[in-house]
Amino acid sequence: MERPIKRKHAPYNSFVLFKLKTGECCWDAVRRTCAAKSSSTAGFEPARAKPNRFQVCLLNHSDISTLRLHSEKVYEKPIIVADREMVEEKADDMLLEAQVSDVAFLVVGDPFGATTHSDLVVRAKKLGVDVKVVHNASVMNAIGVCGLQLYRYGETVSIPFFTDTWRPDSFYEKIKRNRTLGLHTLCLLDIRVKEPSLESLCRGKKVYEPPKFMTINTAIEQLLEVEQNHQESVYSEDTTCVGLARVGSEDQVIIAGSMKQLLTLDFGPPLHCLVIVGDTHPLEEEMLEFYTIDKTSKRT
Questions:
Q1: Residues 184-210: pLDDT tens digits?
Q2: Helical residues (DSSP H) of 204-281, grouped into ranges
Q3: Mean pLDDT throughout 23-40?
Q4: Which CATH class name applies to 140-299?
Q5: Where is the Tetrapyrrole methylase domain (predicted)?
Q6: Phi, psi of 167, deg, nearest 5
Q7: 14-137 in CATH: which number?
């Protein structure tokens, strides 16, 4: 077995992968973690005394405005907003910094929900950098708020934006397998932040498109289009689904109904996700009853 590389830097230097709580700002996340006295976070205590040796990067893969960033400083240090391009192409700079100072990398979603994040951890460990991970809730478990039991979910799928020339449907077979087994399917909807346009890439000069977040309505339209193409009756416009928006925030929205019904609703600002309901337990049915369109309309 390969021995870990010994590092010669100060013992408090580390690379920490934070998971933000749903609806939490990065300021609160760092203060919460630094205040903790457990061995996993004790390494951040020197950050109070040495603010110049503490760097915070916030991953901007989604709408960070919902995280209520009320300051650009954490322990009197600016927050570096790290877009996808920086993380994927300039990760070496971040890891080199972690060899001489503490670096906190905050992500929206599970710390290991993206292959890129796992790659960062592997590379940091190979450099002998101490790596700590701070876990928290993500949509993968917060989705339980709709009343469907977590252990009755099958494989999670991602629904990408269709274009005129690219209309992938690999998610269809996964949904089919889940529904054959009677399992629910969580559909994560596409987000496009700081994505270069195809035209600009062809010209050799990147021009970024405006941020774009898939709505539940668009997801359902695309799902029904794919079903129409396959004609395997995996689901239909009458299939029961749950639409969720801004899960974990004060203004979260949860509505259950058929695809046809949800297609007509406005779920408001991002982020959105969709659950295609499988076979249900009586308790799940009782919970879903609170979120059906008829019940929610009576409460509003």
A1: 999 999 988 776 666 666 777 776 778
A2: 216-230, 259-262
A3: 43
A4: alpha beta
A5: 83-262
A6: -135, 70
A7: 3.40.1010.10
